[in-house]
Specification:
The complex is a heterodimer of chains A (178) and B (531). Chain A is of the alpha/beta class and 178 residues long. Helix content of chain A is 36%, strand content 17%. The longest helix of chain A is centred in the middle third of the chain and has 14 residues. The chains are: A alpha/beta (178), B alpha/beta (531).
Chain lengths: 178, 531
Amino acid sequence: MGGVGILQYPNTPSLHNPSEKRRVIKTRSMKTATGVGKPARKLRVLIAKVGLDGHDRGVKIVARGLRDAGMEVIYLGIHNTPEEIASSALQEDVDAIGLSIHSAAHMTLFGEVLALLKKNKARDIAVFGGGIIPQEDIRSLKKMGIKEIFTPGAPLEEIVKFVKSIKSTRRKARRNRQ
Amino acid sequence: MKSMKKCFRNLSDIEIQPVYGPQDIKDFDYQYDLGMPGEFPFTRGIYPTMYRGRLWTMRQFAGFGTAEESNRRYRYLLKQGNTGLSVAFDMPTLMGYDSDDPRSRGEVGRCGVAIDSLADMETLFRDIPLDRVSVSMTINGPAIVLFALYLVVAERQGVRLRDLQGTLQNDILKEYIAQKEWICPPAPSLKIINDIVRFCVESVPRYHPISISGYHIREAGSTAVQELAFTLYDGLTYVMSAIEAGLKVDEFAPRLSFFFNAHNDFFEEIAKYRAARRLWAREMKARFRPENAASLALRFHTQTAGCALTAQQPYNNVVRVTLQALAAVLGGTQSLHTNSLDETLALPTEEAVKIAVRTQQIIAHESGVANTADPLGGAYYLESLTNRMESEAKAYFDKLDEMGGMIEAIQRGFPQSEIHRAAVAYQKETDNRERIIVGVNAYAEPEERRVPTLKIKGEVEKKQVQRLKQRKKSRNAKKVAAVLSQLAGIAEANGDLMPAVIEAVRAQCTVGEICEVFRRVYGEYREAVSL
């Protein structure tokens, strides 16, 4: 539960009140021993399931793995719309978004997330994903702008390595703001 | 003595000995521990003749796209030798949304069949005689609506409710714990379940109104012991709830059914099913003292483990499913679904599902295992493991009792965190190669041979939305509004929902419209998000 770098959302938003504000709990341990400046250097990653599918075994392991690897993880849980994801990503000023989906709605929903980021001039946020996604669709998703897709059997280490390798312009801007 | 590994543990983290013998089942008493099949405590099976009397039902879970496409698949499956049907609904239907809801975008017909209306349901069962084919429906939050639709379709086919056979999954507790397809919070959800159970007791006596499930709990990453413990305890919770709602245990318990996973560790799974029967019989007797022996018998459906299949080298999955299915049969399942080789990639093609059906048929007709009940009974390893699993599950029961019951435990996040910890451990063992998965972390190949997969076209959504629009135009809008308002009133007054939902369905109210009433009156469930 808690731990360094996880913002915990106390509730999934009401499915019928998308405008309902989410309460953000910042855990005390977000400040490191050396003070306020450090967190901005960490890669901030939003992890979420998009759409109606609630199978969260994998996404929770990924969120935890990234957290354990020293990243700041904002875990949004399940039942998120593309709008909620994009809005949280902007609100939290993340460097990357990881989406999990097992309902075969990935072409539509991943596409909508990308479109919303584009609309909000946030195409520099790297979007990656995982779940039940056939090979042919992976090619199309990458053409759309998804950076990487991890299918069943992908080792956690591989996912962590990939996310760590994300170069973020937002991180620098955050640091400069501090 | 040399071993390949330092320690051999099964998926419930139980240490396995190099060999088992009489000392491992020192106090074994045939009558007390096993009994004959069909007799308390039912360890060896719930019927005296088991598969000699009747084979397990071959019941492949299926559904995709529109009702027409799924109806075609059901008729194909029946032709290929399925002896029962099992309906997979799409995500919008599972969550109680119509195909034209904004939340349904991109999801219609993709992981199951889209059912919005009575007409859809009629199409789904066209040319399928519901008095002769038993149908299981995997639906939970909106279960009462889909059940009402099914009853009205049966009636229109001229089938008497008394003759209907089938199962409604209708197990909301495991949704909160694992599958996470819900609408309302626990209290109203249990009330809805009790209304369904009561209706079945009175009017659909051959039907199983709940399929108390462990499959999803296991898929979420639990150990076999956790699957056993949480499932059975959910069952006890439903029994208590129905009794509190005024039903007598012997009225409904004989029609409770269960649904387990068939995972990889062959003997652990067989032990799990046997421990399940024995533990259920003993606990039901101790807690509720039924008079009817059928109230103590645990009857179950099994599905082979989806999470144990691989996307890499998919043909290997045929072998995995065979072993898993064999464990289920040796464990005495009443009904079985075997996964298709391509299900880590998409919903199954006809070719792939045919092989899955043939797998069951070969086990049934060629292997000889069905010729006698509980063929492995008396094996030292198996009996020792059965005992161990029963006692470890019982320890979870004590803990859950202490916590104040399953709902309290769910609210505290207890089963969810147990499952998550087990899932993390499994992932770690796989990544470290302590656990070998052939084709994934051993014997992997860089170039994969592609298998053909089922594609759901975008037209499905368009068609379904169009159809819904037309239906809404052609129905009596005033009647719809009145009936929905009446339903809301009954819900608010805590009245019997079943007749009201049936009436709503007859008046052409949609799945989404009826569920919206529940959302408004009972509120929506929210999970506390945490890792």
